[in-house]
């Protein structure tokens, strides 16, 4: 409680990405387009999976969770960053800064755990478990576990950070509140506490990344028994997935294991996993799949047909009723 009583800073001033107004305009346009595409692509995936019975499988259950996390992960930092690019003075209150820090670690850690679960599901670990008991029950338990793990990790990071005394300065050389730039503003020696906080995130990221590498290595080794065409398709899928994993895990590991890097490099790396990575995820993981394309086309045809019957919002109701009737027939 003593540390909390010493907290005098009521707001932080962010230096943003750059002070060049030309770059600010270019960044605001580019990141606005990227953010909109992220929202549209991931929302399309969630709606398609929810309303398509053929996609009610463990794999698509986790992919819908991934889309939800990507939307939340981007929304934690991008809107505030876009606002900062348009304003001369970029400020954030202490409470909002801590809230942003908590949310960022929650969704980032949840995505790390989810990507790890999905990788081992491809290897067959989860498939074995699903064959022994109820699929829905196992999926829900795994989803609960990854969200619980993300919450515990985020609470630990937030608690350790908020306990430190902040009496000035209050300038963050970043475009969002994250642990490394925030704890540099503490007005006392926090080397040990800082190492504990940073190593916590670094250990989670590095451990899960090594687990992912192991999983994909086993998959690639097992491909030797497949046909040439099967190997080609599997390699294409795994390489695309691993590229996304690298874009997401790489910046996390970089930020939390090389703490002595320059702030400019930190900003460039941070943009990758807060802005860039969530945008291609829908295309790489889901929208390229034929069953998803077919489901989207089917839903669109239903919507058009229902729209010709009514114009007062009964289109969605028709889809829901259709799904209910299909379930009853089954």
UniProtKB/TrEMBL annotation:
Superkingdom assignment: Eukaryota
Domain G-protein coupled receptors family 1 profile: from-to ranges: 41-285
GO cellular component, one term: plasma membrane
Entry's transmembrane regions: 21-53, 98-120, 202-223, 235-259
Predominant subcellular localization, coarse grouping: membrane
A matching Pfam family: 7tm_4
Places the protein is found: Membrane
Membrane disposition: Multi-pass membrane protein
Recorded GO MF terms: G protein-coupled receptor activity; olfactory receptor activity
Keywords: G-protein coupled receptor, Membrane, Olfaction, Receptor, Sensory transduction, Transducer, Transmembrane, Transmembrane helix
Functional note: Putative odorant or sperm cell receptor.
Protein name as it appears in the record: G-protein coupled receptors family 1 profile domain-containing protein
Organism: Ursus americanus (American black bear)
Classification of source organism: Eukaryota, Metazoa, Chordata, Craniata, Vertebrata
